[in-house]
Design a protein that fits this description.
The chain is of the alpha/beta class. It has eight helices and nine strands. Helix content is 34%, strand content 22%.
C-alpha cells in the first residue's frame, strides 16, 4: 500500500529552458523511508516542493489516497522562532486551523522524549546546537500527525561527526514512529544508513536507479558508480 504516489508528473519553471521533471512516476510505500539522491539541478528540491503542496505540476497528478493530511516539511534550516521555547516551537502547528483535530498538546512532551530533547523543553533556539535545532524541527513536523514527513537535506549544514550520529538517530526515530518519509540528500552514506529504499533522480530523465540496500546488498561503490555514469551522460548530452 502506498502513502504517496506521483503519476506522470511534469514541472516546468517559468522561463526555464525545459522541464525540471518530466512524466515522473514515483511511489512511497506505507511506513517506508525513501531517499532521493541526485546531482545538483536534478530536481530534488522541486520534487520536495511538489510533495509538500508548495508547487503544482503542469501535468500529471500526485495521489495522496484517501488520507486528507498533507506531508510535513523539515527544511535544510530549522527555521525555529527565536522567541519561542523548544516546547512552544514543537507545539506551533497546533495554532493553525489546517491542523485542527490532528494536534494533541499532550503529544509534545511525548515527542520531546522520543527525540531525546525533553531536558531542553524550556530552552530558546539560541541555546541549541545545530543538531538539537534539527531535532526540534523534526518534532514540529511530527506534532501535526502528517501523512508523510519530507526531509530536505536536514543535516547538510552540520559537521560530519554530528551528521553521522544524527543519521543513525533519524533511522531509529522513523522506525519507532512508523511514518512514511522522503529524505532528499547528496550524501550517499546518509542514504545507506537511513533509507529502506534509495532512488536516483536524474531530472527529466526521471528515476534511473532504484535500490533496496537491506534486501539487495547495494554498496556505496555501486551508488557512486551510478553518479559517475550520470555525470558522463550529462556531459555528452
Amino acid at each position: 500500500m502506498s502513502s504517496l504516489a506521483l503519476h506522470g508528473v511534469t514541472h516546468i519553471y517559468p522561463g526555464g529552458a525545459g522541464p525540471v521533471l518530466q512524466d515522473l512516476d514515483l511511489e512511497v510505500a506505507e511506513h517506508e523511508t525513501l531517499c532521493v539522491l541526485g546531482a545538483s539541478g536534478a530536481g530534488k528540491s522541486t520534487l520536495v516542493r511538489l510533495l509538500a503542496d508548495l508547487d503544482q505540476p503542469q501535468s500529471g497528478r500526485i495521489d495522496r489516497g484517501a488520507d486528507p493530511r498533507l506531508p510535513a516539511l523539515v527544511p535544510q534550516s530549522p527555521d525555529l522562532f527565536p522567541w519561542l521555547t523548544v516546547a512552544e516551537n514543537i507545539a506551533l502547528g497546533g495554532r493553525y486551523c489546517a491542523n485542527a483535530g490532528r494536534f494533541r498538546a499532550e503529544r509534545v512532551p511525548e515527542l520531546m522524549a522520543d527525540l531525546g530533547i525533553a531536558e531542553l523543553a524550556g530552552a530558546l533556539p539560541a541555546e541549541l546546537s545545530g543538531g538539537q535545532a534539527q531535532r526540534v524541527a523534526l518534532g514540529r513536523a511530527l506534532a501535526v500527525d502528517p501523512s508523510v514527513v519530507l526531509l530536505d537535506e536536514p543535516f547538510s549544514a552540520l559537521d560530519p561527526a554530528i551528521r553521522a550520529d544524527l543519521q543513525t538517530w533519524l533511522r531509529d526515530v522513523l522506525t519507532r514512529v512508523r511514518i512514511s518519509a522522503v529524505l532528499v540528500t547528496h550524501d550517499v552514506d546518509e542514504a545507506l544508513v537511513v533509507a529502506d529504499r534509495i532512488v536516483y533522480l536524474d531530472g527529466p530523465r526521471g528515476i534511473t536507479a532504484d535500490w533496496t540496500p537491506r534486501e539487495d546488498g547495494t554498496t556505496r561503490e555501486e551508488v557512486l558508480a551510478h553518479y559517475r555514469r550520470g555525470a558522463i551522460a550529462e556531459a555528452d548530452a
